[in-house]
Design a protein that fits this description.
mainly alpha; 17 helices; binds zinc ion; 72% helix
Length: 417
Amino acid sequence: MLNADLIYYSFYIFFTITILTKAILLFLNMKNIKSHFNQVPAQFQDHISLEDHKKAQNYTLSKNKLNLTSLFLQAIFLILWIEAGWLDLLHQSLTTQFESTIMTGVMFLISFSIINSLLSLPESIYGTFVLEEKYGFNKTTPKIFLVDMIKQFALSLIIGAPFLYFILKILYTVGPLWWLYTWFFIMAFQFIMIWAYPKFIAPLFNKFSKLDDEDLTQEIDKLSKRCDINFKDYFVMNASLRSSHGNAYFTGFGKNKRIVFFDTLLKSLNVDEVVSVLAHELGHLKKKHIIKSIIMSSAFLFIGLFILGQLYNSPKLFEAFSLSTNEAYMALLLFVLIAPYYTFLLTPLMSWLSRKNEFEADEFAATHASAKKLITALLKMYKDNSSSLTPHPTYSKFYYSHPPAKERIDFLKKFST
Ligand SMILES: [Zn+2]
């Protein structure tokens, strides 16, 4: 059933569909933003000035242009890796260095990811120091940027190398059911990371201090009681170190569960608004959205590993992409590279599910805090983050994890009478 031609041609069909769809969606969005450039949408005229609106439109256009460039660069790099023999070249340069197959595999995968992140470095530098800088959001200095990069690199060696080593160990020793064991291993690893992230990893990049605003702490305690949730600690993160974009989230589980506010958010919202934003986040927790998304991504991982389990030692896979090796770690990497193109068309479905959860969390916030305050908080956040109020409807349906401004505020208004 499986043959090399089928793998090869189906990949390039899905690859072309993905790139074209992404490009068309970006063009549509930019066109829509340009055609709504000179006027604030009627509903927002009392809250957003024409100047702020124009800034948001320009900012979104600049980001979309950068996305378009990076879309084509990524496509070119993928072709170079697969078609121009870069994968083979990298592999050959490593095979003579190590005696053990597993060590060669680990080094191969790590070298690949280092080269890949170096290839995307210009885009990341441009995004931070040109684009974000131009619109006044960037607070990162070249020094912080460099130190962050070194820390990320060290972390990916310290955590990533043993992680890959274990996966390859399973792959090379367990036999045909390796994919199932690997699934269990990755699941366990994910839970350890969710637990460890707030306590051990996030503090490497940001300072977390306890919230010391008494009024706010009191109001949050009241809200937690109303929602029947116990949080021991509220933290403020110095997000302003890198960027002026605002946010709030919670993280960890068990005793490490904590609420984190960006200092940038606390600066722009008043107490009642922060409480409504927090109520929205608690809505996600109470409606079990986080558990559901973990279950769903575990199911996807299971399916993906199962498919890889059937493919990894099939000579057809290597033949399809004319690779000179048939090592299992090469199959692993190839799979990670090509799979996203086969699943891209699921994006609108996932975005729709996410927006459905956002409406549920908004409804929770509207019933446990104030819908009116959530609306004013959102308006401030749209303004502060320069979010465009006029995305193309198809673009927002395809990608938006949150309902577009107009829909979201219309929905909340139903509760704010
Ligand atoms: Zn949300």
